[in-house]
Design brief:
heterodimer; A: mainly alpha; B: mainly alpha; about 75% helix; about 0% strand; elongated
């Protein structure tokens, strides 16, 4: 095999490698841009607290008012982790 | 002959009128609440509006305004719902549930500045309230106030360390600031507490991709797609990401 042929094959290999790397980079750049811009979204807002009867919010165990002041996420009726 | 003297009954016209009004208010509360229970929003609105027209004393005035706000919000009338919750808070400035719902309605109608003002009041009134911290944290995150968002979600987690959603939001905050190691840690913690949390798994994949861990990212997207069976949009995105990484 002549040295000229080896040089040509090497050049072709380098070009192919370069093209593949470029494609890799383009895929990643597109993917990263898309996810950064739109997909890393915050969790959903909490649902509305429920209605209150004619006795009002104070003086008894009013569930919505208790939820509004609760320290734990569950007692506060915040979104569960499976449906952010 | 009576064993005891019967209680005197007032026959004064004004007193009888007041008693009739009081009975009507209670009855309309019952009808309105039943309407809310069965999703008949217009019927509920009519009952609570009528109660407010009768000018009830507290706590029935603020409560009727609050219930009317719920009925209006449920039918998509967010501007009127906000006015109703504001009325409830004006009548009862310590009404935390009304503040919580007003924030939700303000966010729904795109008034993030209004939501933030109410959220600040809510947190000031109830600094340990998970609802207050969560609501303000989300509004702060949506408006780019990452310092407040981080502080609120951190306080929420101090009170409830296993709440995976707050870990997820902290992970988002760290990612937005380019702190990918911290972001990865928070997202992994969220997944430790909730392994099936598909959106956190998806976010983790994105962060791993940023960090150059292609295999880890691909595995995360694969798992996110599997866990997002009830969320076709997220599932589709996760599959696209996985395939994009797999195809050089």
């Amino acid at each position: 095999m002549s040295s000229r042929l080896i040089a040509r094959l090497s050049l072709a290999g380098l070009l192919l490698l370069g093209a593949l790397s470029l494609r890799y980079a383009c895929v990643d750049a597109g993917v990263l841009t898309a996810t950064q811009a739109s997909e890393l979204v915050p969790s959903a807002q909490a649902p509305l607290l429920g209605p209150i009867d004619e006795h009002g919010r104070t003086g008894w165990l009013c569930r919505p008012e208790v939820a509004a002041s609760a320290k734990s996420a569950k007692a506060a009726e915040l979104p569960a982790e499976l449906r952010p | 002959m009576y064993a005891t003297t019967p209680a005197p009954h007032s026959t004064a016209a004004a007193t009888l009128h007041d008693q009739a009004i009081a009975r009507e208010i209670v009855e309309r509360f019952h009808i309105g609440l039943a309407a809310l229970e069965t999703h008949r929003w217009s019927d509920a609105q009519a009952e609570f509006t009528r109660i407010l027209d009768l000018h009830p004393a507290e706590p029935q005035g603020s409560t009727a305004a609050y219930d009317l706000g719920i009925a209006l919000a449920q039918s998509g009338r967010f501007d009127e719902a906000a006015q109703s919750f504001e009325r409830a808070i004006a009548l009862d400035p310590g009404f935390l549930a009304a503040m919580a719902n007003l924030i939700a309605v303000d966010v729904s109608r795109g008034d993030l500045a209004g939501a933030r003002r109410v959220a600040d009041r809510f947190v000031a009134r109830a600094p340990d309230s998970a609802r207050a911290l969560y609501a303000r944290g989300l509004v702060a995150l949506q408006t780019g106030d990452l310092a407040t968002a981080r502080s609120d979600f951190s306080t929420l987690l101090h009170n409830d360390p296993q709440y995976a959603v707050a870990h997820y939001d902290l992970g988002i905050i760290e990612a937005r600031e380019g702190h990918y190691d911290e972001s990865q840690r928070e997202l992994q913690t969220a997944l430790d507490f909730a392994p099936g949390y598909a959106r956190a798994r998806f976010a983790l994949g994105t962060v791993l991709l940023h960090q150059g861990d292609r295999a880890g990212a691909r595995a995360s997207f694969e798992r996110a797609a599997a866990d997002a069976s009830d969320d076709p949009t997220l599932r589709g995105l996760a599959i696209s990401m996985r395939d994009a990484i797999a195809t050089p």
